[in-house]
Design goal:
- This protein is α/β, with parallel strands linked by helices.
- The chain has one domain: Metal-dependent hydrolases (TIM Barrel, Alpha-Beta Barrel).
- It is about 50% helix and about 15% strand.
- It contains 16 helices and 8 strands.
- It has an 8-stranded parallel β-sheet.
- Strand 6 (about 215), helix 10 and strand 7 (about 235-240) form a beta-alpha-beta unit.
- Helix 4 (about 75-90) packs parallel to helix 6 (about 115-120) and helix 15 (about 295-310) runs antiparallel to helix 16.
- It starts with a helix and ends in a 5-residue tail after the last helix.
- This is Adenosine deaminase.
- GO terms for molecular function: deaminase activity; hydrolase activity, acting on carbon-nitrogen (but not peptide) bonds, in cyclic amidines; metal ion binding.
- InterPro entries: A_deaminase_dom, Ado/ade_deaminase, Metal_Hydrolase.
Length: about 350
C-alpha cells in the first residue's frame, strides 16, 4: 500500500535533488510566455494533461519550438528565463543542475552562442552548481556550424556537448571526431539515445561517440549486452520518466523501464527534460517511480543520490555534498519510518 500523497510529496520535497537532463528551451516558464502575449498563451497546452500522448517526435518538436522560439531570440532572453528556472529549481530543493541550449538557435536564428552561455552562467544563483552544455542535433555538424562548434570547445564555462534532435535521423559522420576532440579539450560528452531508437543506438553513442553520459537510454533494457556495456563503462542514464510516457510508443507509467534498469544495476537519475511541454516538476517524476513502479522511499533516496554521484564536480566538493545528502536522507527515512509506526490516533 502506497504512502499518502501528502506524506510522499513532503518526503520528496525535503530530499536534496539534482536536475541533470534539462533543455533550457524546454524549461521556459509558461508565465514568461503569458507576459509576452497574455491572449495567445492564456491557456496551458493540452500536453500538460496527465494522460496526453504525442503522436510522434515531430508532433512534440513542433509544439516545443512553436512555443520556445517565440521567447528565445537573444542572449538576454536566455538570461531572463534562466534566472526564473534556476530560482524555481532551488525552491524544489535542487542543488545541482546540468542544462543545455540548442545549437539550432545559432544556426537558424543567428543568436550568439557565446552570449547565450554567458547569459546562462550569469543567472546562476548563489548556492547552486550549474553546468551548461551545447546540444547539437544530428545534422547540426554541417559546413556552417562546424567552425562554431569547434570554437565553442574553447569557451570557458561550457561544460561540454550533447547529441540532440530527432533520434531516427542519420548522425553526421564527423560526430565521432568532434566528440573525441571535445574530451581532449576537457569537455564532457553526452548523447540522447535509446528513446525512439533501440539498444543498438545506445551502443553506437557509447562505442562510436564515446559518450560519457546517456540522456534517456531506456531502450537499452531491450539488450542485456548493452546493459552490461553500460555497467562496464560505469555510465549513468539521465532518465525523464514523464517525458518518456508522453512521447515513447508503448510506454506508460506502469511499465516504464526505469524499474528494470534500476534492478539490473544501471545507475539512473531522474529529471524533467522539457517542462514547457510536459507541465511536470521534479517531484512528479519521483512520485511516478513510487506510485507506479514500486520504488520504496529508500530507493528514491538512491535515485537522488545518483545525481550527486554523477555530478561534474571536483571530488572534494562531491564528497561534501554527498555527506550532507546522506545526513538529510537518513533523517528523512528515520522520520518516515517513525510516522508509519505511529498509531493512527496518535
Amino acid at each position: 500500500m502506497t504512502d499518502s500523497a501528502h506524506s510522499l510529496r513532503a518526503f520528496i520535497n525535503a530530499l536534496p535533488k539534482t536536475e541533470t537532463h534539462l533543455h533550457m528551451e524546454g524549461a521556459l516558464p509558461w508565465r514568461l510566455l503569458q507576459e509576452l502575449d497574455g491572449i495567445k498563451y492564456a491557456a496551458t497546452p493540452p500536453s500538460w494533461e496527465g494522460h496526453f500522448k504525442f503522436r510522434d517526435f515531430a508532433h512534440f518538436d513542433e509544439q516545443l519550438l512553436g512555443h520556445a522560439l517565440a521567447w528565445y531570440v537573444s542572449p538576454e532572453r536566455y538570461h531572463e528565463a534562466a534566472k526564473v528556472v534556476f530560482r524555481e529549481l532551488q525552491e524544489q530543493n535542487v542543488h545541482y543542475v546540468e542544462t543545455s541550449f540548442a545549437s539550432g538557435v545559432i544556426e537558424f536564428l543567428g543568436v550568439d552562442g557565446k552570449g547565450i552561455l554567458d547569459g546562462l552562467l550569469a543567472a546562476v544563483p548563489e548556492g547552486m552548481e550549474v553546468r551548461i552544455f551545447m546540444g547539437i542535433h544530428h545534422g547540426g555538424m554541417n559546413e556552417k556550424m562546424l567552425p562554431v562548434i569547434e570554437e565553442a570547445l574553447t569557451w570557458d564555462g561550457l561544460a561540454g556537448i550533447d547529441l540532440h534532435g530527432t533520434e531516427t535521423l542519420p548522425v553526421d559522420e564527423i560526430a565521432p571526431r568532434l566528440w573525441r576532440e571535445a574530451r581532449e579539450t576537457g569537455k564532457f560528452t553526452k548523447a540522447h539515445a535509446g528513446e525512439f531508437c533501440g539498444a543498438e543506438f545506445v551502443r553506437y553513442v557509447i562505442e562510436e561517440l564515446g559518450a560519457q553520459r546517456i540522456e534517456h537510454g531506456v531502450r537499452a533494457v531491450e539488450d542485456p549486452a548493452v546493459l552490461a556495456l553500460i555497467r562496464e563503462r560505469d555510465l549513468t542514464l539521465d532518465v525523464c520518466p514523464i517525458s518518456n510516457v508522453k512521447l515513447m510508443p508503448g510506454i506508460t507509467r506502469d511499465n516504464h523501464p526505469i524499474r528494470e534498469l534500476f534492478d539490473a544495476g544501471v545507475r539512473c537519475t531522474v529529471s524533467t527534460d522539457d517542462p514547457l511541454v510536459f507541465g511536470n516538476k521534479l517531484a512528479d517524476e519521483y512520485e511516478l517511480l513510487h506510485v507506479h513502479r514500486g520504488f520504496s522511499r529508500a530507493e528514491l533516496v538512491r535515485i537522488a543520490r545518483n545525481g550527486f554521484e554523477a555530478a561534474l564536480l571536483c571530488e572534494e566538493h562531491r564528497q561534501a555534498l554527498l555527506e550532507e545528502f546522506d545526513r538529510t536522507a537518513a533523517s528523512l527515512l528515520e522520520g518516515s519510518a517513525e510516522q508509519r509506526d505511529c498509531p493512527a490516533d496518535a
